[in-house]
Amino acid sequence: MIKKTIFAILALSICLTSCDSWVENAETPSNTVTREQLNKATMIANVQSNKLSDGPLVANVRTLQGTAAAGVFLALGTTVDELTEGTIPNTLLYRQIVNDNVTPRSGTQDGLWDQLQNYYARSKELIEVAEQIPTGNAQTEISKMYGQYMGHLHAGYALQLLAETFSSTPETGDGGVIINKALLSRQDLYTQANEHYEAAAKAITSSVMQGFNGIDRDAAYRQIMTYELKLSIHQGDYNRAATLIDKAINNSNGNIEVIYGNDGGDNPLYSAIGPNARNVQVSPSLEAARTSSAMVKALPLKHASVDKQNPNRYNIYAAALTRKGALVLTDIDEIHLIKAELIIRGLITGNALNEVNTVISQYDSSSQLTTAPSLNDIADLRRIFLAFRGERTADIRRGLEQGTIATTWQNRKIKWLPMPERELSAMNM
Q: Which UniProt keywords apply (predicted)?
């Protein structure tokens, strides 16, 4: 496992691809890797006959994905009714989101913006390094193609996270996001994200990878298709989602997650909404929404006292999260719920009741539904079983969630986070 210090050095020193002004103006420290050292196949992966392990560049991008995704999930969860400010907070961002007064000049969102831009920059950089490595033996060619697969996959996800989190017009989201000092519309970002996903799929299914047994190509391909599926769902493009659902992960491929074990850091969600959380907590509304035994078991929540003199002052925390546990981006539960939704919408054939009960029965068979689910039922199930992944915000934006929360959302002043003032100012320079 690559040490965190190496991650930090690489993040500071590798500036081949720029994403905004702070990246473009960064200077490379003299005590870090050179361009010649960087353009080595082993920086991407170590390849043996039937074994592949990540090199420093890929390992760094994987870590940046988890950090950026967790930051987005927390911010989006606070924007809706999933998370709220902690009882004894120290972070102004969550307070400003809850109070609906985040502004470009507040500076509270700068850290998340920088994480996302850095994640995107390092992903694009991985693509460039892979392309520039000289042609060599079979192992080198596999490293090059693996780098393109991983680089494009993560560049696409970084653009998707940027599009779903920030906007130059946060009141309506009609604006865009600044990439390389250019303001790109949300649709442009989604289009580019899909192009990266397709490039990743092309790389992993290439002739170079076909003869190599050191990676599960089918699982990798299905994971890419799952990223595309989720993006289609978030956009409300259900016809396209219907073409992707059978290509997504299944019970044979497992979940899509980021590991923070061994020498890595803690699961960022655990640090934020675990038992020692103070800045942000699970909302009472989400706690109350667990209306069945299955929901309570799927989303176990507990109260942590923050004031021994006043036991009524407590934070609600997610009890299932562990310090070194994986950060889950997608799992099989989500695929079953997407299938059920597409069946209800009349876009694929199947039994929606069976799909949702497959999810519910994992936790408590007595909580299974007895009648065919509606879209409202799907919204309720997704809220609990897919908590803390940014899906709640996506469901409200695409209109799946109706009622009071949808009205509250429409009445919000800030529906996306505003980009930092320094980025908006850079556009006019």
A: Signal
Q: Which residue has the tokens 């192992």?
A: 139
Q: Which two tokens stand for residue 150?
A: 């991983």
In a 3-state reduction of DSSP, which class is residue 305? strand
CA gap 382, 380 in Å, rounded: 6
Residues 313, 341: one domain?
A: no
Distance CA 106, CA 271 (A): 24
Q: What is the pTM of this model?
A: 0.91
Q: What is the pLDDT of residues 122-143, one digit of tens each?
A: 999 999 999 998 887 889 999 9
Query: Hey, what are 105's tokens?
Result: 């000049």
Show the DSSP H helices in 80-137 as ranges: 92-98, 110-132
Residue 104 lies in a domain: yes
Whether the per-residue pLDDT at 210 is higher than 70: the answer is yes
CB 272 within 8 A of CB 280: yes
CA pair distance 205, 225, nearest whole angstrom = 13
Residue 84: give the domain boundaries.
4-269+325-412
Alpha-carbon distance of 131 to 56, in angstroms, equals 17
Question: What 8-state DSSP symbol labels residue 197?
Answer: H
Q: Confirm if 73 and 165 have CB atoms less than 8 A apart.
A: no
Contact 338, 382 (CB under 8 A): no
Query: Which tokens hold the place of 167?
Result: 């906007």
pLDDT digits (tens, 9 = 90+) for 351-383: 999 999 999 999 999 999 999 999 999 999 999
